[in-house]
Design goal:
Strand content of chain A: over 45%
Oligomer: heterodimer
Number of strands of chain A: 12
Largest interface: A-B, 23 and 22 residues
Structural class of chain A: mainly beta
Number of strands of chain B: 11
Helix content of chain A: under 10%
Largest sheet of chain A: 6 strands, mixed
Shape of chain B: globular
Shape of chain A: globular
Largest sheet of chain B: 7 strands, mixed
Distance between the termini of chain B: 36 Å
Radius of gyration of chain A: 13 Å
Strand content of chain B: over 45%
Radius of gyration of chain B: 14 Å
Chain lengths: 110, 115
């Protein structure tokens, strides 16, 4: 079946540091790939998405590129802020089902 | 624009009690989902529905039931609550396949504790 493997956390960085959260997937064909973010006490919100190989999703300074050859969708940001502290989920969608990774808790310290 | 609304936000149940978690969406989405989120375990799919009258099991359906009598509502029923069902429950919805690759919208969650 489909699965998503995500970098384990928690991750703690200083403000303005470079961020990478690794995500790899297992699925047949060409799933759509997503990063969702969950702020404390809230539901998940879409951060960015990519629907085909080599697509780059971007939003709020975050980027991720759909790499079919390495089955990866790593999340990056060049300079993180305290307000980026949250839990980040990598996910894939194949037909009607959404499959999530285990989530990575990110804490940014001033 | 309410989006996906879940009630209640918090609930404490005793072992063996039953309850229904409510989920309503006002976006006319065909697809609806129930997930549970356990610490360090990510989100696990409990049940999903591709339209009114159609439901299907996800990864962890045991101990739960669902119904989808209308497009808007997708309640999740716990018949005999057990401590293992202590979790945060999220409902989500999205448009159907014919509307392209679109995101899922999530409710704010229901935190359930079974004691």
């Amino acid at each position: 079946g489909n699965s998503v493997t995500q970098m384990e956390g928690p991750v703690t960085l200083s403000e303005e540091a470079f961020l990478t959260i690794n995500c790899t997937y297992t699925a047949t064909g060409y799933p759509s790939l997503f990063w969702y973010v969950q702020y404390p006490g809230e539901g998940l919100q879409l951060l960015l998405k990519a629907t085909k190989a080599d697509d780059k999703g971007s939003n709020k300074g975050f980027e991720a590129t759909y790499r079919k050859e390495t089955t990866s969708f790593h999340l990056e940001k060049g300079s993180v802020q305290v307000s980026d502290s949250a839990v980040y989920f990598c996910a894939l969608r194949k037909y009607e089902k959404l499959t999530f990774g285990t989530g990575t808790r990110l804490t940014i310290i001033p | 624009n309410a989006g996906v609304t879940q009630t209640p936000k918090f609930r404490i149940l005793k072992i063996g009690q039953s309850m229904t978690l409510q989920c309503t969406q006002d976006m006319n989405h065909n697809y609806m989902y129930w997930y549970r989120q356990d610490p360090g375990m990510g989100l696990k799919l409990i049940y999903y529905s591709v339209g009114a009258g159609i439901t299907d099991k996800g990864e962890v359906p045991n101990g739960y039931n669902v119904s989808r009598s209308t497009t808007e509502d997708f309640p999740l029923r716990l018949e005999l609550a057990a401590p293992s069902q202590t979790s945060v429950y999220f409902c989500a919805s999205r448009p159907g396949l014919h509307m392209g690759n679109t995101e899922a919208f999530f409710g704010q969650g229901t935190r359930l504790t079974v004691v």
